[in-house]
Amino acid sequence: MNRTRRLLVAAAVIGIGALAGAIAGEPTHGQLAKADSFLRRYTELLTVLVAEAPLQPVPADLAYSSLEGMLQLLDPHTNFLRPEAFSAMRIQDYKNFLRLHVAADGTLTIHPLCIERVPRRWRPRDPADALQPSALVPETPLVVAPIEPPIVLRPGAPSPNDH
User: Fold this and answer.
1) Is residue 62 over pLDDT 90?
2) Which end of the chain, N or C, is less packed with Cβ atoms under 10 Å?
């Protein structure tokens, strides 16, 4: 089979697969009506809660709290971020993170670290630098600084939160 014919056959298979997926994966009218009905009831519930609450709740707080509750019920490991919490992630600089070190004896050392300015220009790494795992390195070296002293947790020792 020549190359053109193979490309045409591959394109046809992909096209047919995409079409079949669109047809088979499309929600039915009943599913859309059920979802629409649920959203209508949910909106009515939030409206009644806002109108009848003894204190005036913020409608967005009610909506976000209910979404967070539903997600926690479905998956307790889910983290729901409200828009105001998520917006800080868009800031290019001031990135904070934790470096965790687990020693052979089970001691956990947590290093809170920050980068005040992230690199903006990158270059290919020096091929002679075998210790550098990244293909690209910042033109200006990264400055990582501790936020506070390391936190050390030893096995069997009381937690810092225990009273």
Assistant:
1) no
2) C
Q: Where are any strands of DSSP class E within the chain?
A: 95-102, 108-115, 122-124, 136-138, 144-146, 151-153
CA atoms of 64 and 39, how far apart (whole Å): 14
Alpha helices in 28-93 (DSSP H): 29-52, 59-74, 83-86
Instruction: Report yes or no: 117 and 93 within 8 Å, Cβ to Cβ.
Output: yes
The sign one gets for the Cα dihedral 126, 127, 130, 135 is positive
Q: Which residues contact 144 (CB under 8 A, 6 or more apart)?
A: 113, 114, 115
pTM: 0.44
pLDDT grade for 101, boundaries at 50, 70 and 90? very high
